[in-house]
Each structure stands twice: as C-alpha cells, then as structure tokens.
Write a structure and sequence with these properties.
By secondary structure, the protein is of the alpha/beta class. It folds into 2 domains: 128 residues, Aspartate Aminotransferase, domain 1, CATH 3.90.1150.10; 234 residues, Type I PLP-dependent aspartate aminotransferase-like (Major domain) (Aspartate Aminotransferase, domain 2). The protein contains 15 helices and 13 strands. Helix 2 runs antiparallel to helix 12, helix 7 packs parallel to helix 8 and helix 13 runs parallel beside helix 15. The structure holds pyridoxal-5'-phosphate.
Length: 393
C-alpha cells in the first residue's frame, strides 16, 4: 500500500470515528423480512429496508428466479449491445412500458446507473439542467457527468424553479429533474406545477421515481398518482426497492429509448442483468398489476406507524409517504439513538451529514407491507424506551 495514500485514508477514517460519524455495516444473518437476525440476535424488527411490499422474498419471485436460472443460466455473459440481450430482457421492457403507460422502456443494472445513463446522454453543453436541491445522489452524479449548465432550485419551490427557467431561455434545451418521492424526507414533488412550468418554458421533465415505483399511483408511480404521466418525458424507476429485486429503468417515448440504446454508457459498457433477476422482476410487476392488496397494506401500516410515533411525541417531519423520518437534529444524538433502538430490538438507521444537511440528522424508518400490527406496536414501545434511555425526552 502506498504510504501517502494509507496515511490519508487512516486520517479520513479517524476523523469520521472521532466525530461519531463512522457507519459500521449492518450484516443480516437472515433474509430481509419484517424480523431479522443480526449478530446472532433473532426477531429484530426491521424498519430500515426499502423492501416496501415484502417482494424481496416473495415465493413467486423466488420461483421465477429459480426457473429462469435453469432455463437461461446464472449470467447474461455480455453487455446488452453485444450478446447480453436475452429475449427475457425484451419481454421485461415491454411489460414495464405497458405498466407505465409509455411507448417504451429500457432496463439498466440499477437505479443509480439509470441516472448515470440517461442524464448526460440527453443533454449537452448548450443545455441547462434544473435540479431540486434535495435530489438523490445518483441524480447529482448524473448531472455532474453532463456538460450542461446546472441550476439548483430550492426544494419543491415552484417560484425558484420558474426563476431558473426564465434565466435559461437562451439555452438549446432545458431539462427539469426531480425525485418523485424524496428519499430522506418522504415528501412528494409538486409534479402538476412542475409540468405546467415545463410547458410554459419549453422544458423537458424527468422524474426519478425510485421511491414512488410500487408505492404511489397503485404502484405505477408519482406521475401516475397525479395523472400527469403523459406530460413527464422521462420516468426513472428502480427495480431494487418496492419491486424487491435489483435494477432500474427509463420509461418514455420510443425516440428516447432508441437514443439511449445507442449512447447510454452503462447500457453500452456494463454487463446485462442476469435472467433470474429479470424473471423475478417480471413476477413482481405481474403481482403489482393484478393485486393491490400489498400496496394497500403498505399505506395502512404507514398511517398506523406515523400516527403512533406522533402520539409518542416524535417529529416525523414533512413526510407524506411510507418513508417516515424521526427528526433528531444533532448527529451524535441520532447515532446514539440508533444504537439504543438496536438494543431495544429495532433496526432503524441514523441518517446524518453529509447525506442530509448538518443539524438535520434523523432516524429513517420504513414501515412496509411485511409488518404485522404486533411488529409495529412492539417497535413503538422500543422507540419510547430508547428515547428515554438516550435522554431524548
Ligand atoms: C431517488 C433515488 N434514485 C435512485 C436510487 C438508486 O436506485 P438503486 O438502488 O436501484 O441503484 C435511489 C436509491 O436510494 C433513490 O433513492
């Protein structure tokens, strides 16, 4: 190891540890269920996963993955434009386009690479990208990969967005990018207002619906929830959260998808998803299309959880969705609270700077369709005990 690099790494890690910001990896010794095993302790209530609908272990998905492994093998063997496109990829893309009511869809290896794939591919140096200040890290990185000028507008603030648009009229193209559901606060982008401004100022709209897919609009996403899906040019979805597997996709016009197949770098230069993954995703979309009971249960549990926390005196911020932050404020208090919760049998993770602004640390809780009433009641009791053990109130 190069000594200079090693010294730098040791210093960086030391700083994190001395500021109580170093995050140990949580290792699950059981599948991602409502109750999990960590460090040999069974029955820990899992309030940390994005497995909104419990599909990650659904028997239909597992069976589909096993069958596809027998039929197609474990790996795709190449990037999509060489020999990595199996018929099952094309079938999934047709299924996704139909589910999202768009002309076409293209699957990527993750939601993260979907952003890296689409944003620099549809913009150039003559363009302006208008991006919400609280957009996800993968949007931020996608925007950094683009040569377009970047204008950050205040969170969900249509006035700030309009100022940015007005100042961008000399650009060749304008692209507005927003999360559909914001991953750290659980609030929803004002898509009807955004779409209206986009029309007024001749801008394209892209919605990253990683946390809206499978959750909002009966599973079809935030644009569908607001009835503006025909006015959103680019919809990004993840297949890794509510869908329960791994991957991401872009849904939109035929021209958009055709262009991405020619230029999007993760599509061109990174190996295609294995067939078992694709088959499990198809089984998940099929379930969502034909049965709303899991989505209904998710929202029912989220409402129960939120009102339970509020009843105990916790501040759940501005959340309008199952993502339920418990606002703490100070970083080290949030880290201590996370540890106290684990002692009390609940896994819920602290989100601290730089993921959120300094002084806005929180415990992010994710109730899901997997949880029983008893799980949530037990978790509320644990929150109460943990709060008094760290002196929160
Ligand atoms: C808004 C948003 N976009 C993209 C992603 C990345 O998705 P994936 O986990 O499929 O890479 C996430 C994941 O946290 C997200 O919250």
């Amino acid at each position: 190891m190069n000594a200079t690099l090693n010294r730098w790494l040791t210093g960086q890690i030391g700083d994190l540890k001395s500021n109580n910001l170093y995050k140990e990896q949580v290792v699950l010794e059981s599948p991602c269920n409502n109750r999990i095993t960590i460090g040999g302790r069974t029955g820990i209530i899992n309030l940390a996963s994005n497995n909104y609908l419990g599909l990650a272990n659904h028997p239909k998905l597992v069976a589909a993955a096993c069958e596809a492994a027998q039929t197609w093998g474990a790996g795709a063997g190449a990037v999509r434009p060489i020999t990595g496109t199996l018929k099952i990829h094309v079938d999934l893309e047709k299924q996704l386009a139909a589910f999202k009511h768009t002309e076409a869809a293209l699957v990527f290896q993750s939601g993260f690479t979907s952003n890296a794939g689409v944003i620099p591919t549809i913009t150039d140096a003559n363009d302006v990208i208008l991006t919400d200040e609280l957009n996800h890290a993968s949007i931020i990185d996608g925007v950094r990969l683009s040569k377009a000028q970047r204008k950050i507008y205040r969170h969900c603030d249509l006035g700030s967005l309009e100022d940015g648009l007005r100042a961008s009229m000399a650009a060749s193209k304008r692209l507005i990018i927003t999360d559909g559901v914001f991953s750290m606060d659980g609030d929803i982008a004002p898509l009807p207002g955004i779409v209206q401004l986009a029309k007024q100022y001749d801008a394209a709209v892209m919605v990253d619906d990683a946390h809206g897919s499978g959750v909002m609009g009966g599973g079809r996403g935030t644009a569908y929830h607001f009835g503006v899906h025909k006015d959103v040019d680019i919809q990004l979805g993840t297949l890794s959260k509510a869908v329960g597997v791994m991957g991401g996709y872009i849904a939109g016009s035929r021209e958009l998808i055709d262009w991405l197949t020619q230029r999007a770098r993760p599509f061109l230069f990174s190996t295609a998803q294995p067939a078992p993954v694709v088959a499990a995703i198809m089984a998940a979309i099929d379930l969502m299309e034909h049965d709303s009971s899991l989505t209904d249960k998710l929202w029912e549990n989220a409402a129960f959880w939120k009102s339970g926390l509020q009843g105990l005196g916790f501040d759940t911020g501005v959340s309008q969705t199952p993502i339920t932050p418990v606002m703490i404020g100070e970083e080290s208090m949030a880290m201590n609270f996370q540890k106290a919760l684990l002692n009390e049998g609940v896994l819920a993770l602290a989100i601290v700077y730089p993921t959120v602004a300094a002084g806005k640390a929180r415990i992010r809780t994710m109730p899901s369709a997997m949880h029983s009433q008893e799980d949530l009641e037990d978790a509320l009791a644990s929150f109460k005990r943990a709060a008094s053990s760290v002196g929160l109130f």
